[in-house]
Amino acid sequence: MKILYFTATGNSLYIAKSIGGELYSIPQMVKEGIYEFSDEKIGIVFPLHAWAVPPFVVDFLKRATFNCDYLFAIVTYGIYSAAVGKHLSDIGKEAGFKFSYINRIRMVDNYIPTFDMKKEIKKEPKKKIEQHLEVIKSDITTYKQGMLKETFLDKMATAYMIRREGKPFSKKRLKVHVYGEGIENYITVNDHCTQCGTCANVCPVANIRMDNENGKISLDNRCFTCFACVHHCPSNAIHIKGEVNENRFRNSHIKLSEIIKANTQK
Ligand SMILES: Cc1cc2nc3c(=O)[nH]c(=O)nc-3n(C[C@H](O)[C@H](O)[C@H](O)COP(=O)(O)O)c2cc1C
Questions:
Q1: What is the per-residue DSSP string for 160-204?
Q2: Among the atoms of ligand 1, which is closest to the Cα of residue 10?
Q3: Are 101 and 139 in contact (CB under 8 A)?
Q4: Which of 11, 79, 81, 111, when mutated, tests ligand 1's pocket best, judged by the most ligand atoms within 8 Å of its CB?
Q5: CA-CA distance, 152 to 186, in Å (whole number)?
Q6: pLDDT (tens digit, 9 = 90+) per residue, 6-35?
Q7: What are the structural domains, with CATH classification, of the chain?
Q8: What are the residues whose beta carbons fall under 8 Å from the beta carbon of 262, sequence distance 6 or more?
Q9: Contact 170, 63 (CB under 8 A)
């Protein structure tokens, strides 16, 4: 079994490791230009972003070929996953593959514009991650077929977010991220930055430059707001506009070195 994963703060890597099999980081596959995979079972594990599949994972899936009998996807999320199952199925239809099984697992929500990471970590036991993980593992072992049950409203929510393509909402209270241009106004860097390079090492799209004369890092416009740089900065120098506070998160089972190994583009 092969598992392809993307992770920013370790939740999806923890799930991928727990399911077992050979692990392949999607950022590393993109870096090496590998898009064809063969095995009896193949799985994809990644975090939900804005009620949908993150654009980086969409681009990868649209270029990928899977030669397997059983293709599954597990989406990690924090609060509400809308119609991510339909989004995945639609991507598969367009790219020419079909998922046998799609499921999701609730974990710590790492979305700092809305959530205090300390409180989220405290709430983690209530999410019963290990119990849900056991069900998912057993489903995969027994080749269970099945999709997520999603309502009309869930589908409307996901379709709306996909149409927005990361454009900011006009209402200031809805602190929703922005992709690409304008990112430097959304993700800011303060004077605590030591240009240590951790952020550049965890960035899956090589979007961070260290050559800035003012002694701080700077961002290009390939960012899709996974927040890896923000959560793993050892000086807590990287901030999101409107973030709840300075608390940050990394899955307790995952080391920073594993995130770097998964995401580095060097
Ligand atoms: C930009 C962004 C958007 C997110 N949107 C959602 C969302 O719409 N619904 C949700 O339940 N969780 C959302 N999350 C939370 C993540 O899906 C969740 O914390 C995930 O487990 C993180 O996985 P990772 O540690 O592998 O990166 C979002 C996180 C980020 C960074």
A1: HHHHHTTPPPSSTTS-----STTHHHHEEE-TT----SHHHHH-T
A2: 25
A3: yes
A4: 111
A5: 32
A6: 999 999 999 999 999 999 999 999 999 999
A7: 2-164 (3.40.50.360), 183-263 (3.30.70.20)
A8: 5, 6, 7, 13, 25, 27, 28, 204
A9: no
**What pLDDT digit, counting tens, does each position of 146-196 carry?**
999 999 999 999 999 998 776 655 445 445 556 666 777 788 999 999 999
Ligand 1 centroid–CA 224 distance in Å is 12
Residue to mutate, 4, 19, 77, ligand 1, most ligand atoms under 8 Å from C-beta: 77
At 89, list the tokens.
């199925």
Other CB atoms within 10 Å distance of the CB of residue 225: 24
Q: Which is the closest atom of ligand 1 to the Cα of 8?
A: 27
